[in-house]
Write a structure and sequence with these properties.
Number of strands: 10
Strand order of the largest sheet: 3-10-8-5
Distance between the termini: 45 Å
CATH architecture of the largest domain: Beta Barrel
Number of domains: 2
Helix content: 10-25%
Order of helices and strands: HEEHHEEEEEEEE
Oligomer: single chain
CATH class of the largest domain: Mainly Beta
Number of helices: 3
CATH topology of the largest domain: OB fold (Dihydrolipoamide Acetyltransferase, E2P)
Largest sheet: 4 strands, antiparallel
Amino acid sequence: MSDKNLSYDELLQMVMVFESSTEFSEFHLKYGDVEVDLRKHGATLSPVAQQRAVSIDPPKAVLSQPTTLIKEQESAKNETDAAVSSSSDAFPAGACMVKSSMVGTFYRSPEPGAPPFVTVGQRVTPDTTVCIIEVMKLMASIRADYSGVVTHILVDDASPVEFGQTLMVIDPNA
């Protein structure tokens, strides 16, 4: 991020990460003149957030996503889904898909030059870390969530990934 400026794309990316996260129900950011408070539906406010909610002035502007951007994202998602479904014929029967829980950059290893977390043909358990996804210098470990053998790795190292994109295929019957 640039000095005390927060771009629309950076803000949008933070909102998307928050939406896809299952670990957080609240998010507060104050960066320069920008202040953002997010809360998931049904989440209870923390005491600090309750106090802040009472004292905050109504928002002066509402950020909305331009219609063309929404259409581009839907088109890209449909293309990704079509690519995965067309190649899913090659996947073993009953295959389990490891999907990205957020938008970010996919990394197969914990650091440059290190061996990858998993390789094709490797047996994994639900707790096995299979990759990391970086979002704005924050690293999130992605677990297999299934037992079996990795049959396909569908994303190249250091490639951008979308929320819900299939990253790997695991054959639970192998």
